[in-house]
Specification:
It is a single chain. With 245 residues, the protein is of the alpha/beta class. The chain contains ten helices and seven strands. The protein has helices at residues 2-10, 15-27, 34-51, 81-88, 107-113, 124-139, 168-173, 187-190, 209-212, 217-244, and strands at 54-59, 71-74, 94-98, 117-119, 144-146, 177-183, 197-203. The chain has a seven-stranded mixed sheet, with helices on both faces. Strand 3, helix 5 and strand 4 (117-119) form a beta-alpha-beta unit. Helix 1 (2-10) crosses helix 3, helix 2 (15-27) packs across helix 5 (107-113) and helix 3 (34-51) packs across helix 4 (81-88). The longest helix is centred in the last third of the chain and has 28 residues, at 217-244. It is globular, with a radius of gyration of 18 Å. 38% of the residues are buried.
Length: 245
C-alpha cells in the first residue's frame, strides 16, 4: 500500500511518538474517557490523511442525532472506510467488524481503542451474543457502526447486497438508523496510487424507530441500500458534469 507508506514518511517526525501513544491507549483503554480516546484517534487520522493526499468531503452532518444511542450503516468499500467516517464525525462511535481484520496492524489498535466488537460470521452463537451486547450498549447511549454488506463489495462505488440480520441490534435497541454513503472510499488503501483523492462521506436522514417499527429487517436493509446507492450515483453523475464544465 503505497499511500500508507506516504502517510508514514510525511509524518515521520511524529510517527514514533504517535505509534507509542496509540499502542499504550490500546492496552489501557479504560484509563481514558471515550471522548478523549476518540479525539486522539481523530488527530491520528487527520494527520494521516493530510500526509497521504486524502481529503474528506463531508455532507449531512446535521443528520447525525445530537442525542447518543444511534447506529451508522455505511456501504463497505475497503479498509479505509472507518477512518473516513472517524474524520467526518465528531461524535464518538464504536464498530462491529469481522474477525478477519482484528490483527491488521494499526486497525487492530484503532479497534481496541474504540472497544469494537469482532464478529465471527461462521459462528452463529457468537454473532447472536454480539448483537445482544451491541443492543445493550446502544440502549445505554453508545453509538455503533455496522457494515450491512458484511464484507467489502470490491466493486468500487457499486453497493453489494445489504443483509437484514445486520439491522437486528438497531431494531432491538429501537434506535435511530443513519445510512452513510461512502464515495471513492476504496481509493486510498485499495488502489496502488498516491495521487490526491477525495472521499465523500454522506450522512443521510435518520430512520427513526417510528419509521421502521412495522418493517422487517430485510425491508429495512433494502431501503437503506437503495438510499445509499442512489446517493452515490447522484454524486458520481455530479462529478462527471463538473469535470466536463
Amino acid at each position: 500500500m503505497r499511500r500508507i507508506l506516504l502517510m508514514v514518511l510525511r509524518n515521520l517526525l511524529i510517527v514514533p511518538e504517535g505509534w507509542i501513544k496509540l499502542c499504550y491507549r490500546a492496552s489501557h483503554v479504560d484509563k481514558y474517557t471515550e471522548e478523549d480516546n476518540y479525539e486522539f484517534l481523530r488527530w491520528i487520522v487527520f494527520r494521516a490523511n493530510k500526509g497521504g493526499n486524502v481529503t474528506i468531503d463531508v455532507h449531512g452532518q446535521e443528520n447525525i442525532p445530537k442525542q447518543d444511542g444511534f447506529m451508522f450503516f455505511p456501504n463497505h468499500q475497503g479498509l479505509y472506510d472507518v477512518l473516513a467516517i472517524v474524520e467526518a464525525c465528531t461524535h464518538p462511535f464504536s464498530v462491529v467488524a469481522k474477525k478477519e481484520v482484528e490483527n491488521v496492524p494499526f486497525l487492530k489498535q484503532v479497534f481496541k481503542i474504540m472497544k469494537a466488537f469482532m464478529i465471527d460470521r461462521e459462528d452463529v452463537r457468537q454473532a447472536m451474543k454480539t448483537i445482544t451486547s451491541v443492543t445493550k450498549e446502544v440502549v445505554s447511549g453508545r453509538n455503533y457502526l455496522i457494515f450491512p454488506e458484511g464484507t467489502r463489495s470490491k466493486n468500487g462505488n457499486n453497493v453489494g447486497s445489504f443483509k437484514g440480520g445486520s439491522f437486528k441490534a438497531a431494531t432491538k435497541a429501537k434506535c435511530p438508523i443513519i445510512p452513510v454513503a461512502l464515495v471513492d472510499s476504496f481509493k486510498p488503501f485499495d488502489t496502488n496510487s498516491t495521487r490526491p483523492v477525495t472521499v465523500q462521506v454522506h450522512f443521510l436522514k435518520p430512520m427513526l424507530y417510528e419509521d421502521y417499527k412495522d418493517m422487517k429487517t430485510v425491508e429495512i436493509a433494502a431501503a437503506v441500500e437503495q438510499q445509499i446507492q442512489e446517493t452515490i450515483n447522484k454524486n458520481l453523475t455530479k462529478e462527471k458534469v463538473e469535470e466536463k464544465c
